[in-house]
Amino acid sequence: MLKNGLAAVVLAAFALAPAAAEESPPLPHQEWSFYGIFGTYDRASMQRGFQVYKEVCSVCHGVKHLYFRDLADLGYSEEEVKAIAAGYQVTDPQPNDQGQMYQRPGRSSDPIPGPFPNDQAARAANNGALPPDLSMIVKARPGGPNYVYAILTGYKDPPPGFNMLSGMNYDEYFPGHQIAMPPPLSDNVVTFADGVPASVPQMAHDVVTFLAWASEPNLDDRHRTGLKVILFLIVAAGVFYAMKRKIWAPVH
Asked: pTM of the predicted model, to two decimals?
């Protein structure tokens, strides 16, 4: 019986070894300006992140919940927003006089167009894989911004003996470690206007900041409102305490 028990333990260890090898490591923790009750979005980082999205990520991924006018929250002026919108060609929702749909330069009131007209076209262009929309990706994934950052920076060569499927890429933080998306970032793939070096970690941090804002654009307003409520409650507590002392003073 002892031999049978030892054999069972050894077999179980060998059976669990591949599963343990495929487990993802803990997500790298990043310092995010928007974390905490006093957190706020870093506008310079958001603008750099939007540039990374526009020049790199938008080739495959859309942000269907965002309008051009929303970019004013990133610190762009009205004229800058109009110029960004005009750089896109969008399909006007209303047909022309001949009843045909037509393309025109974007306006501030337009939603930011995605790279594909529909999901079928997106799958056809990506070997059957559907690139997810990014406008809510930070809220939709466990780990939030740390997870998205980890995916963007987790590409590496597969370990010896790892069975990679054809057309897949190894990412140490992606479940199963096999992801259809090729590494989207490489050093200096963009040039930031503010002179910040465009390293992979920097670009990943900035684009995640932008996507965090896209997922929760009212965070700054919510934090400001929360701070005002806390200050009001502190003042109210002081007033109530003073009233209590005054009302009960004769009793003493």
From this structure: 0.80
**pLDDT per 10-residue tile (average), the chain, 252 residues:** 41 40 80 89 97 97 96 96 95 87 93 94 91 95 96 96 93 95 96 96 98 86 66 81 80 68
Q: Where are the beta strands (DSSP E) in 26-133?
A: 89-91, 103-105
* Residue for token pair 């969008």: 90
Contact 185, 203 (CB under 8 A): yes
Q: How far is the C-alpha of 31 from the C-alpha of 44, rounded, in Å?
A: 16
**CATH architecture, domain defined by 39-66+112-220:** Orthogonal Bundle (1.10)
**Local structure of 12: helix, strand or coil:** helix
- The kind and range of the H/E element at 178 are strand 178-179
The sign of the torsion formed by the CA atoms of 82, 87, 92, 95 equals positive
